[in-house]
């Protein structure tokens, strides 16, 4: 239990920060018989945060042009689910503060040197037991930029040949505190204004195709999600937070060996546009490094926390060999976000999340392309709503959805998801280490940066293969919790601790 408590203490940094999401963009709009992007959307989500990193309050200013709900919705379901899981946790028990179910450890562990035979040319798995916590940054904090690793990654970005726009970082506080930046079209800020970059992945090309994704893990209940996905033969993209990857390396290996796509979700889950160039590099570099140290492969896809990305952050990610992947937006103010993350903090209800889901699939059947939905595997409540209700309902939907990881919904082989296995033919990310390359002209080609991938993908690993302390299966490793969670987050911390004690 001690290890579970350590992990629970480490998690609320994300709980608190996730309040920012609602200040950036709306939840899903009700389904329309016409293409919904033509009309303003109304938020059906939860309250917005008044400051970056602060928990959402009982009322706040939502995304521009939206109406924010001012508390958890106790409304009943507005639709009938096509199917549910017979073993689903009752909706009344998927709520903040409800006693936790037992956690599910990695059901399969893999010996060092095991080769993932499903992935052509994949290297063997590293020995996760040799990971040394002292070799990595503090959990859930933006890493310092003066380490040898980060200094090397900074130089690699400079050598990449990709021009990083001279854009000032945004202010904490989301859209309401950044009106000038939000109005600056040259910035192309996805979260505030809905600007999509030329290379951003927001959707799958084929109608009725769902790019299934889960963010912020691996965590204490990810094992339950993995078991369910295996039972129904579904594969997903897991956007992995570096601080969670080093805490649960066995679960990360299980995700990877089960043929799910592993992608980057930063080291500590900050709003990326608020960071300096060097801090952005540190967040991405350390996340890439821990994934490589646990799996032996380096992801070529990433998702910005809160979808918080602009042209400066996009360019840095591209210079580091990472394709920016977000989720579906149907108007400047409405996106395919279930709101599942907010159940654990008491900011929304399980019934509201399912009503959001119904709106999402209603819109998904009217658009002329596939879609990507924002969901999470950090907390028990998000996993329970997914395995008990959302996924069974989706699997029973008629006409049927075609559900798969993002890289495959883009009609690319799974090997393109990793630097070491990508053959550069269908997913050219650049292999030059000389810095003489330049940005690809193909705006529709995911992962098409050139001149940087090898340097930024491999120099990191060369600079710090860790050894020493052993990992204990799926248990959290012995990291100190963040030194300060912030006084404003104490209420959310208590709720999160209640999930695991």
List the topology elements.
Blueprint: H1 2-10, H2 12-17, H3 20-24, H4 148-159, H5 179-183, E1 209-211, E2 213-215, H6 222-231, E3 237-240, H7 242-245, H8 249-257, E4 261-264, H9 277-295, E5 301-302, H10 311-319, E6 323-324, E7 329-331, E8 334-335, H11 350-364, E9 371-372, H12 380-395, E10 402-404, H13 406-409, H14 453-462, H15 490-500
Helix pairs in contact: 1-15, 4-9, 4-14, 6-12, 9-10, 9-14, 11-12
Written description of the protein model:
This protein is mainly alpha-helical. 29% of the residues lie in helices and 6% in strands. The protein has helices at 2-10, 12-17, 20-24, 148-159, 179-183, 222-231, 242-245, 249-257, 277-295, 311-319, 350-364, 380-395, 406-409, 453-462, 490-500; strands spanning 209-211, 213-215, 237-240, 261-264, 301-302, 323-324, 329-331, 334-335, 371-372, 402-404. The strands form 4 sheets. It has a 3-stranded parallel beta sheet. A 3-stranded parallel beta sheet has the order 2-3-4. Strand 2, helix 6 and strand 3 (237-240) form a beta-alpha-beta unit. The relative contact order is 0.22.
Beta-strand residue fraction: 5-15%
State Rg. Answer: 21 Å
Largest sheet: 3 strands, parallel
Q: How far is it from the N-terminal to the C-terminal residue, by CA?
A: 8 Å
How many DSSP-defined strands? 10
What coarse outline follows from CA principal-axis ratios? globular
What's the pLDDT, averaged over the residues? 78
Assembly type of the chains comes to single chain
Which spans have pLDDT < 50 for at least 5 consecutive residues? Answer: 1-73, 430-501
Q: Give helix % range.
A: 25-40%
- SSE succession: HHHHHEEHEHHEHEHEEEHEHEHHH
* SS content category: mainly alpha
Number of helices: 15
Which strand order does the major sheet show?
9-1-10
């Amino acid at each position: 239990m001690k290890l579970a408590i350590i992990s629970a203490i480490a998690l609320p940094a994300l709980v608190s920060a996730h309040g920012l999401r609602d200040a950036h963009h709306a939840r899903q709009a009700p389904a329309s018989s016409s293409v919904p992007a033509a009309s303003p959307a109304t938020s059906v989500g939860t309250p917005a945060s008044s400051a970056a990193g602060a928990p959402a309050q009982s009322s706040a200013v939502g995304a521009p042009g939206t109406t924010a709900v001012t508390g958890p919705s106790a409304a009943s379901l507005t639709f009938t689910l096509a199917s549910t899981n017979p073993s689903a946790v009752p909706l009344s028990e998927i709520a903040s503060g409800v006693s936790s179910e037992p956690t599910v450890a990695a059901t399969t562990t893999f010996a060092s040197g095991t080769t993932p035979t499903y992935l052509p040319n994949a290297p063997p798995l590293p020995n996760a037991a040799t990971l040394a916590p002292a070799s990595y940054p503090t959990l859930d904090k933006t890493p310092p930029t003066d380490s040898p690793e980060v200094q090397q990654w900074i130089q690699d970005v400079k050598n990449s040949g990709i021009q990083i726009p001279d854009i000032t970082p945004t202010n904490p506080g989301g859209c309401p505190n950044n009106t000038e930046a939000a109005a600056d079209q040259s910035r192309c800020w996805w979260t505030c204004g809905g600007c999509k970059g030329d290379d951003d992945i927001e959707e799958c090309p084929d109608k009725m195709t769902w790019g299934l994704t889960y963010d912020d893990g691996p965590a204490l209940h990810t094992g339950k999600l993995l078991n369910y996905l295996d039972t129904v033969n579904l594969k997903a993209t897991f956007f992995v937070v570096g601080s969670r990857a080093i805490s649960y390396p066995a679960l990360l290996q299980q995700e990877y060996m089960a043929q799910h796509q592993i992608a980057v979700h930063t080291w500590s889950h900050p709003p990326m546009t608020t960071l300096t160039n060097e801090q952005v590099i540190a967040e991405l570099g350390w996340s890439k490094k821990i994934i490589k140290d646990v799996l032996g492969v380096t992801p070529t896809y990433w998702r910005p926390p809160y979808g918080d990305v602009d042209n400066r952050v996009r360019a840095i990610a591209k210079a580091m060999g990472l394709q920016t992947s977000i989720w579906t937006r149907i108007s400047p103010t409405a996106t395919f976000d279930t709101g599942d993350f907010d159940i654990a903090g008491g900011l929304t209800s399980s019934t509201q999340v399912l009503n959001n889901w119904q709106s999402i699939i209603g819109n998904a059947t009217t658009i002329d392309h596939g879609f990507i939905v924002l969901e999470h595997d950090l907390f028990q409540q998000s996993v329970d709503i997914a395995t008990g209700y959302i996924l069974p309902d989706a699997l029973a939907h008629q006409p049927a959805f075609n559900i798969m990881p993002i890289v495959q919904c883009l009609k690319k082989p799974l090997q393109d998801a990793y630097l070491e296995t990508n053959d550069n033919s269908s997913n050219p990310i650049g292999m030059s280490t000389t810095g003489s390359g330049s940005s690809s002209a193909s705006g529709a080609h995911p992962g098409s940066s050139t001149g940087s991938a090898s340097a930024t993908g491999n120099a990191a690993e060369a600079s710090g293969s860790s050894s020493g302390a052993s990992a204990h299966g799926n248990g959290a490793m012995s990291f100190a919790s963040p030194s300060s969670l912030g006084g404003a987050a104490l209420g959310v911390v208590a709720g999160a601790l209640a999930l695991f004690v």
